Amino acid sequence: xxxxxxxxxxxxxxxxxxxxxAVRTRSRGLELIFWExxxxxxxxxxxxxxxxxxxxxxxxxxxxxxxxLILHEFKAMEEKVKVMEKEMKFYQGSIDRxxxxxxxxxxxxxxxxxxxxxxxxxxxxxxxxxxxxxxxQYEFQRVQKELDHLQHELKIKQRQSQVFNQxxxxxxxxxxxxxxxxxxxxRELTSIKNEVYDNFQNWTSLKGEVFLQIKSISETAxxxxxxxxxxxxxxxxxxxxxxxxxxxLKLLSDAAMLRSQxxxxxxxxxxxLQTRCHDLQKEVLDLQCQVEALGLNLQKAxxxxxxxxxxxxxxxNEADDCQRELRKLKFESxxxxxxxxxxxxxxxxxxxxxxxIHKTLQEELTAKERQEEDIKRRINLAxxxxxxxxxxxxxxxxxxxxxxxxxxxxxxxxQKSIEQLQETLRQKLLNDDNWREKIExxxxxxxxxxxxxxxxxxxLFKEEARLELDIEKEKHQEIIQKYKKEQEELQTxxxxxxxxxxxxxxxxxxxxxxxxxxxxxxYTEDSESKxxxxxxxxxxxxxxxxxxxxxxxxxxxxxxxxxxxMQQKSDELERVMLAQTQLIQQFNQSQEQNTFLxxxxxxxxxxxxxxxxxxxxxxxxxLELRKLSGSSPLSPCSLNQGSLTSSAAVVSNQGExxxxxxxxxxxxxxxxxxxxxKPTASPTLAQSQRLSSSGLPTVPQPHPPRGxxxxxxxxxxxxxxxxxxxxxxx
Length: 730
Description:
Number of helices: 12
Shape: flat
């Protein structure tokens, strides 16, 4: 089997030529070149799998970059192009189809929407017609029921009006009672307010007394603090005096050193050096002893400091405990005050609630009064109607009375006429006895006539009363006929409404139904609510009476408890203030002791540090002198002068710095110290110059302590011992 490169060698050359032509003729299209190549060279056999599986780097020429299998690639590309052309044709046809289908869809959607709208409108019409029919049927039934109901309600309202008249009388009686009770409750509330105000004034007066006591205690504490400050000033003055004495001792020591230096200059340098070496050795031993003693003293001081620290810790703990107790007492007092304020606020809230309830009751009363006024108006209208009827009745009664009076007058006149006739008859009887029968007959006739007239008048009165009653009945019948006519008109209207089926009449009927229902419901609710309100008012009045009694008792007990608690709190405050002043004094004393101990410890530490530095420098100077004494007797003097003087100057500078630190730490200005420090520098310089001339080393003096009197005495004793030793050695 041949390799692909040997088989495809001529193809590569042809492709290179054709590509050259394509480069030369750029104006031609790539499609022509492609089809020329495909027409000339068409692969007849398929490539083996080994060649297909080869990497693209092996298939491509390294120099020109053209693949050896370009014909097969062109064939594959041709197939792909054909497939793409088919797809393009299909897609070109599909675009037209899509446009047609979209147009059809649009037309169909429009038709569908039209059909849907038509169907919806038809269904809505059908539903509206069905609803209208149902509503008309329901309305017809409702109107019939309402008419029956209204007739029934008229009868009920007539009965209820009588019941309400009776209830109004009862309500008035109850309202009068409630008003009297409310006035009584107002008086009691005002009395309670006055008592609370008196309690509050007592509380404010007690507060003022407590604040005055606190101010007096604070003034006493301030006076004690001023006394302590004065004692501090006196102690500071004593301290300044002691410092001046120390400076005088320094001057004496400097003068003694000058004298010793003048005596030592007369001797020879070698003898002086030897003697000084021995002296220095002895002094070193003495200083070592002193250092050991100072170490023991320091240990004692450290133990004392530890003891003082323990005491300070104990006192600080005691002070913390006292502060905690004070805080607890303050907290308890605050809690009690808050509790009392809460109680007062609760009482005020209860009073406010009572006032609000009172206001609500007043508002309810006003509302009830308004309702009563409305009812009264209605009753007045009914009463006016009744008065009109009564006036009519009174008029009829007056007419009856006048008729009765007329009848009586007629009877009296008839009786008089009868008496006259009787007298005439008597006279005639006296004259003629035969006329008796005639007179009796005439009397009987007249009596019959009078009886007939009387009966006629009675009948007339009865007829008039019947007529009046008939008139009233006719009035009521007119009202009934009006209702009947209205009923007939409503029936006619209902028939017209059923015929017309308009929405306006529906709305009117519904509004009328709602109003009638609301009026009936309101009427029933008002009647029920009035009954309930009367019962509730009775219960509320009873509850208020019980609450007022309870609150009066509770206020009395609470006021007594508050007075007792105020007395207890005032006593506790006095005790707490006394304890506070004692604790403040103890705390100030402990602070003063603490500051004093800290100053003493600091001074001792500074003295120890200065002494150790001076000893180290003295040892170094002695070692240098020993080294130089063996080699040359004169050179060490000139060499050691600067070092000794520098050590002395350093010690003196350290002493001055310690003084300035102490003065700055205490905040006390001492002008006398600055004036004394300047002349002390001159003798030290002179001493250093003389020592440099003599060649003798100078031992720096330790800085004097500034603590208690014992430390001052010790420093004096040490300085005196050093001076005696030097004088004895010289």
